[in-house]
Records
---
Amino acid sequence: MKDVEKRNKRPGSNPSKLPSLITISKKIPRNKKRTSIKGHLKTIRQLRSKTTSEGGMHEPGKWLSNIINFLPDATFAINTEGRIIAWNKAAELITGIPSTQVLGKGNYEHAVHFYGKRRPVLADLALKSDEDIEKTYTFITREMGCLIAEPVSPVIMLGQTRYLWAKASLMYDGDGNIIGAIESVRDITERKKIEETLKKKRTDYPDSVERKSRNRTPC
């Protein structure tokens, strides 16, 4: 994928040693019951500022775990070796897998619990392009440093069929070095059901009109 760029440094890096998250996007499916992404980012910035001023955690895994637990979407992060370094509460709920069971694991362990098999997913694509994996998504777009995609097929999670939407971006340390990638996954099953219902209605409407026309009694 041409638009997946390999970068070792991030321009204009923050001098602090805490990881930097690039997670801004306007193409996220809207859910009025949820706080806006802008609100989540504001919270992250506030916590990051507080952590820095207090000389707090500098270990990426601990810092990330505390931050992403505030996010409503299932979110995980991997380091450059593909090992899971963060797994939030929403990820535990949607997969049924506690963070203690997956943290530190590699070999695409993160993919197993979301997609049912060990293979690169969007976070891995952010780190390294893979044309075969790109084909498993309906589309992949880049916006403000993020990869946004929907898998071609639904997945089975906790015995239920689910449609997913995902967003991933690289993570950097304070010196601008890539330290991994973070991915948020949203369950859009209800939205898909509504879309299918509307699609069916649009398909059935012409047939219904034609039947009524045939059955109409001539004057």
Note: The longest strand covers residues 178-187.
---
Amino acid sequence: MKDRFLFFENFRQMADCLPDDMQLKFYKSLMSYVFDDTEPDDPVIKSLITAIKPSLNKEEKRGGNHNPTGQNQHNKSKPENNEVKVGQNNNGLGQSEVKVGQSGQSFLETETGNGNKKQEIIKLHSPQSKSFAERLREIVCRKKNIRVDGRKLAGWAKSFDLLQTADGVSAERISAMLEWYSENAGGDYVPVAESGASFREKFTKLESARQRAEADKRRVGDWMNGKKEHDWSWV
């Protein structure tokens, strides 16, 4: 019987896009499948579990043997990165994966033609940029009722980095715009920003839309106040 398994970031991202009651059911069903070999009854949850079965079964075959200390015997010679896979792609030389170690360092791991793995350190995004990318992903998931592949988040965070460093937009302005966009996405004349790149590209247009909306709100408020103060005694 298995006593452990690797929990990948995309599992949590799948759960985050579900309603609260379905999230609990997803996690319980995941545990039941891994440890009790029990399939879920709910068709929605079953489809999600089915989608991640390849990852679960692959890890079981690759790292199922453990010594008494709990260390994976297949990984004794590997550095202790405690890595979390956040993205991958295939190329002519093999499979590439963007990973994050326990220290927070991002690196690209590529399988070479002889079966070895080459690791190349990637410049880290700032913590704020990662948070901004996560916030935009949550907004898009909620507003569009879709799942956003977690492998895109590294690129989204880079766009938020550039928005701050190259474009000179402060973190405070970005945070305020994300909160406004969270409430107004999908509204009339609100630019659509469903990725880090499009959010950066349309940032000034988003700010203009916000300013117009606030100006309209003030005009309506002034009109309502004037209407209340008007002398209606002649009616």
Note: Strands lie at 84-91, 94-100, 106-111, 117-122.
